[in-house]
Amino acid sequence: MLRRVVSAAVAGMLLFVASPARADDVRGGQRQVIKTLELTQAWRVSKGVGVTVAVLDSGVDPGHRDLIGSVRVGRDFTAGANPPGVGPRRLHGTYMASLIAGHGHGRQGKLGIIGVAPEADVLSVRVILEDEEPGFREFNSAERFENVVARGIRYAVDEGADVINMSISKELATREERAAIRYAISRGVVLVAAAGNDGDRKIDRDFAPYSYPAAFPGVVSVGATDRRLRRATFSNWNSSVQVAAPGVDIMGAGPGDEYWVGRGTSQATALVSGVAALIKAKYPDMSPPLVAQALTASATDRPPGGYDTATGFGVVNAARALAEAGRLAGHTETATGAGAQDPAKPVAGGGRAGPIKVIVRDDERVRVYAAIAAAAAAGAIASLTVIFILVRRVRRAHSSQDA
């Protein structure tokens, strides 16, 4: 959900369609997001240097002045969907990349878009088409494009991504996507995905439709909040939602040095991926589950009871997430050893749990407990017998008196 707000650049000063700007209105338009995520405080600890965020999207414009030097263009898994000679628009992908790793431009980078992790690198992996591209229908109907997301995930992992941003959503999941996500997590890669924008199309009074890959276990599913940090009306609400971030009137970059304002769980997801990049830059060996724990445990504006299906555990806060990550940095949640399940393979036995093998059996304790149980049962029987005898005697005594 986008609208263009800037179409021209004059001597480094940006002119909005509505009126000329004295200062950089683009950066001014980001002020609320910067405040909500406490980015100024977070940047004293980490700016994302050394981290690569793979943006699985419609492609990123590497020449945008707020991204130049930070983008590596990777594989295009949509090749063949558009007619020959038709290039990608790269609007949505550029927008998401700028929210994650935009570094601004001009003196000291004070103009343009500043991303959550301005010193991170972006790996552009094209796995979707814009709605307006001529091959959009072909891409969404041809069987050969069914598993482009799964292939994109594996490619990003193999290319060294630390975080994978997926501001994309689909209604149906595939086995290949599930396996690719397990593969990424096993390699220490954090996956962040959009919860979806069908929140006003609820199918039940208790939740809106699930969206994939966000609903896969191990993926940080992100909902969107409005300016009051409440669930945005379009944001999906269901038990997959883990955290939320601002998703209404979000300023971002577009191809060709343009700037756009939009809304959606896509934007919220990109902001959370940026926070994950800050954490991975400071604590590169931190496992995906612990990064997710840092994001959730430090969230602000937590709902009553600590969790709900609208905003998950609350709104992500970059400064607090880094502090929480510091407390978790000495721990691990990665299983090792011969008994650990390979996350890249299906669960043994087709997903059915096998018999539980008892390694140590304390026969002496079992005998003692059995004896106690037997004694208790005998005592109960004896008590019932005594009660039965007493009741019969009382009844006989009453019968004798009546006679």
Textual characterization of the structure:
The chain is built from eleven helices and 13 strands. It is an alpha/beta fold and 403 residues long. β8, α7 and β9 form a beta-alpha-beta unit. α4 packs across α8, α8 packs across α10 and α9 crosses α10. The longest helix is centred in the C-terminal third of the chain and has 40 residues. The termini are far apart. The N terminus is likely disordered.
Gyration radius, rounded:
29 Å
Number of strands: 13
Low-confidence stretches: 3-23, 349-353
Q: Residue-averaged pLDDT, rounded?
A: 86
Can you tell me the overall shape?
A: elongated
Distance separating the two termini: 96 Å
The largest pleated sheet is described as: 7 strands, parallel
| DSSP helical segment count | 11
Portion of residues in helices?
A: 25-40%
Structural class: alpha/beta
Main-sheet strand order equals: 4-7-3-8-9-10-11
Strand content: 15-25%
Give the helices and strands as they follow along the chain: EEHHHEEHEEEHHEHEEEEEHHHH
Describe this structure in a few short sentences.
With 403 residues, the chain is an alpha/beta fold.
